Amino acid sequence: QPLISSSKWLQLHGLKRNKLTLSQILSQIGFQHRKDYVTTLGKLVASRYADGLFPQYKRAQDGSVYNLTAKKELILHFVDCLMGAIELYKQRMEWLTSESRQIFGVIQERCIVIVLDFGTAAPADFDLCRDALSMVLVEQVTQIAKFNLIRAAQDLMKWQQKSTPVSEHTVKSAVTWLWKLDHMTAASHTRSAEALLEAMSDDAVSS
Q1: Which of 53, 56, 83, 199 could be a cystine partner for 113, CB 3.0 to 4.6 Å?
Q2: 32 pairs with which residues across the strands?
């Protein structure tokens, strides 16, 4: 799936886009039972001709009543469409909460710098962090334009001096660099801040 936000995804695949919201469906399977103000009579007059002719549906949100005129086939068509929408939503949720997206979310920027601050991670946790970072590089960074890695340490460690165009070669190179890093004691908060400032100094990176 493309690396887009959920709001953008809903614009493309949501109920409103596919005319499957409750209001949109009701307008296609019936008509609203109205009460209008008649100026000459000076009062509200309700249309009664539909009473008892059609099944009616009352919306809890605003109390409006709809007379349902659609045939069974059309109702079943909307049932199928809604079931398909539910399945699509499930797939999206499963995708959002799996693999690297579970930790990093969905990367939407075209150019990023990942700042590595491993803190007081034990050797086993250090490897888990590198596993997660390798995953995000392979799954998501491969779909953007440019990237770089900076490690917060006594002396800042940079994979490249500036953000580098994404390619199969550069991603493999970054993963290799990541797994060659030594386990170190925690960097100070000052070093972490310096690493962030260094990342932001790259003109290609947006905040």
Answers
A1: 199
A2: 66
Distance of CA 99 to the CA centre of its chain: 14
CA–CA separation, 152 and 148 (whole Å):
13
Cα 12 to Cα 7: distance, rounded to the nearest angstrom: 9
Residue type, 63: G
Domains of the chain in start order, with CATH, are 6-97 (no CATH), 102-205 (3.40.50.410)
Per-residue pLDDT tens over the stretch 12-57: 999 999 999 998 999 899 888 776 666 676 776 666 655 677 888 8
Which region holds residue 108: left if phi is over 0, alpha if psi is between -120 and 50, else beta? alpha
pLDDT in tens, 151-201: 998 888 999 999 999 999 999 999 999 999 988 766 677 888 888 899 988
Measure the CA–CA gap between 195 and 191, rounded to whole angstroms: 6
DSSP string covering 24-41: HHHHHHEEEE-EEEETTT
Which residue type sits at 106?
A: V
How far is the C-alpha of 57 from the C-alpha of 33, rounded, in Å?
10
Q: What are phi and psi of 59, to 5 degrees?
A: -75, 130
Q: Provide the percentage of residues in the chain whose pLDDT is more than 70.
A: 90
What pLDDT, on a 0 to 100 scale, did the predictor assign at position 47? 61
